[in-house]
Design brief:
By secondary structure, the protein is of the alpha/beta class. It has six helices and seven strands; from the N terminus they run αβββαβαβαββαα. The strands form two sheets. It has a five-stranded parallel β-sheet with strand order 4-3-5-6-7, with helices on both faces. Helix content is about 35%, strand content about 15%. The two termini are about 30 Å apart.
Length: about 170
């Protein structure tokens, strides 16, 4: 099946036909709190399952920040280079964490539109500005987050969709 990636950025035309191949990986920065690292790692696994062209940056992931690196520089480098920015709000306190808000501000400063995924059980009145001013993706709004995933080039099969839904429900 063809990969639904914004072709102008990640693919080149082969010959004169309509066949395309991916030559660059799209990078997705996933902002999350330290206590939510387990959920973020599972999210990364599902994203990479939905697109072989996806490279996911997680600050809590050994693959993203090698040992001995200056972690703040690595986070800012990843924020500067990512194509897409996703926030995982797993617990209500996540919406108030300074690092998540810093990363959202950095992404907005680059002109990126943050995809803020709100896991189940978090009331809307939890959010304050700046996150309150962003259109949020709630766990139960499957059609909306599926559309967003499709628009960033993920091919989410029904099986992967069920796995995302289970993750967002924290089961």
């Amino acid at each position: 099946m063809a990969l639904a990636v914004p072709l102008s950025r990640f693919a080149s035309r082969v010959g004169g036909g309509s066949a395309f191949f991916v030559r660059h990986r799209m990078t997705i920065f996933v902002s999350h709190s330290s206590p939510s690292a387990r959920h973020a790692v599972r999210f990364k696994e599902l994203v990479e399952k939905a697109s072989k062209a996806a490279k996911v940056f997680l600050s809590s992931d050994w693959e993203s920040i090698p040992s001995g690196s200056i972690w703040l520089q690595e986070i800012e480098r990843a924020l500067s280079e990512c194509h897409y920015f996703i926030v995982l709000v797993v617990e209500a306190d996540d919406a108030k964490r300074p690092w998540i808000n810093y990363e959202v501000g950095f992404a907005r400063g680059r002109g990126l539109l943050p995809k803020v995924i709100v896991f189940s059980g978090i009331p809307t009145d939890t959010f304050q500005y700046p996150l309150k001013g962003i259109h949020l993706l709630f766990s139960g709004d499957t059609n909306r987050w599926m559309l967003e995933f499709e628009q960033i080039g993920l091919h989410v099969t029904p099986d992967i969709q069920a796995e995302f839904a289970k993750l967002f429900e924290k089961r």
